[in-house]
Specification:
CATH superfamily of the largest domain: MutM-like, N-terminal
Oligomer: single chain
Shape: globular
Order of helices and strands: HEEEEEEEEEEHHHHHEE
Number of domains: 2
CATH class of the largest domain: Alpha Beta
Radius of gyration: 20 Å
Bound molecules: zinc ion
């Protein structure tokens, strides 16, 4: 699943290339992937591309927006002759001729370029929404992990009555947005906090430490263009991330902890694979 650094990376690439493009038509190859009236898009010039949590917002005139959630397997790939930019879930579709069997939507721009929305498992979506609808959607999300509004005081308040494992609590979008499974595991390892600890049991000092390292792992993810770890990664210049090369615990079962040399073990918390060091995370 694309995490925040991957989504931010896609957003940055599209922000450089989409503004100014005028939508001539859209081909909806799978109905569930698109919400809205297709004709409302015709002739619209893209103004900007931004992000909140893992949602990519393509700004259009007249207070309209194309809101996108890549979910598990979504990709956005822009193609114009020799230029190919985008990203999301890493598969061979990054490099193959498009459309592929996973292409759900094709946006045709007046200059002949195209934007493909590919989504193998069809959980992702692109929806045409007014500014008001976007604002309503955003109320489901707390501050982004890399926003200044997110402080240890804020987390202490949010966690004060929660007994769920800290690993699950820091992944709750309504508390803070953008810390997915890989980065949550790594942040807890760096803070040397057990993922099983009840959220409310963390001291203020531990929350300060956890927040600081969580911001750090997200920042490192951004600097590396995110991660393409899923066992079948495809390397394309400018599209693939390399955070997997520096992962602390995620995907490193039975290997040595980079903090203390202890053994990394795997467990399940809230149905998600959780990697941690059994020696130093307490
Ligand atoms: Zn350790």
């Amino acid at each position: 699943m694309p995490e925040l650094p991957e989504v931010e990376t896609v957003k940055r690439r599209l922000k450089e290339i989409l503004p100014g493009k005028i939508i001539q038509s859209i081909e909806v190859l799978h109905k569930r992937s698109f919400g809205g009236k297709e004709k409302d898009l015709f002739g619209q010039e893209i103004q900007d591309v931004s992000r909140k949590a893992k949602l990519i917002r393509i700004h259009l005139p007249s207070k309209l927006n194309l809101l996108t959630h890549l979910k598990m397997t979504g990709q956005l790939i822009f193609i114009n002759d020799d230029i190919r930019v985008g990203g999301g879930h890493p598969t061979a579709d990054w490099v193959k001729d498009l459309p592929s069997s996973h292409t759900r939507l094709i946006y045709n721009f007046t200059d002949g370029s195209k934007l493909y929305f590919n989504d193998q498992r069809i959980f992702g979506w692109m929806r045409l929404m007014s500014d008001e609808q976007v604002a309503a959607e955003f109320t489901k999300y707390g501050p982004d992990i890399n926003e200044d509004a997110l402080t240890a005081e804020y987390l202490q308040k949010k966690f004060s009555n929660r007994r769920i494992p800290i690993k699950q609590a820091i992944m709750m979008n309504q508390i803070m947005a953008g810390l997915g499974n890989i980065y949550a595991c790594d942040a807890l390892n760096m803070a040397q906090i057990s993922p099983f600890r009840p959220a409310q049991s963390l001291s203020f000092e531990e929350l300060i430490k956890l927040l600081s390292v969580a911001k750090q792992v997200i920042q490192e993810g951004l600097e590396h263009g995110g991660t393409t770890y899923d066992g079948k990664y495809v390397h394309v210049d400018g599209m693939s991330g390399s955070y997997q090369d520096i992962m602390r615990v995620y995907g490193r079962e039975n290997e040595k902890c980079r903090q203390c040399g202890g053994k990394i073990v795997k467990a399940k918390i809230g149905g998600r694979g959780t990697f941690y060091c059994e020696s130093c995370q307490r």
